[in-house]
């Protein structure tokens, strides 16, 4: 386990915490690789993953953000070097259980991607979100790919071209987060969501995640048939009748 990642399984829930507030909870490639493995493992042991960070800011980006690159490798080598980040993004989508995120302070670049990738994202009312890559001379499609199935086109293009901070209310309106909560109710709201998920049978938890992953964006007749099949399959399972 890397130094700044804390992990525990408690009451059927996997809790993952990035604890490096002095560095803005910035995430290195080894940390991203470990986080991917932990999210993958949670699908087999847990009803949900809770992703949190410590300190005033949620995450200020990747640990290399702002560094001046040396001699760049050839394009195909460079492409493979970033696989660890794309695989990390994919771990949220392939997880069979929901990832619940709690965001405080600033969520910048990779941090904004983290917030968007969570299936449920609870935000304080003072949190801010930003994709600053273009202002650092970085092609932003890596971060954009994290939003592509969460956020509409106009919001993505505004955030990447303008590279400005947006408010929690703005982030809610475009689909980056799920709910805005005053700071004094933040922890209790996250606990409430966790308690609700704990009471849902595993087949339903998996089916909801599957449906949101694959049905949204499909033509309506296909999505409807998918819904009918899952509804009949899951509701007839023994686990749903306990």
Automatic annotation (TrEMBL):
CDD domains: crotonase-like. InterPro entries: ClpP/crotonase-like_dom_sf, Enoyl-CoA_hydra/iso, Enoyl-CoA_Hydratase/Isomerase. It holds the Pfam family ECH_1. SUPFAM superfamilies: ClpP/crotonase. PANTHER family: ENOYL-COA HYDRATASE, POLYKETIDE BIOSYNTHESIS ENOYL-COA HYDRATASE PKSH-RELATED. Belongs to the enoyl-CoA hydratase/isomerase family. This is Enoyl-CoA hydratase. It comes from marine metagenome.
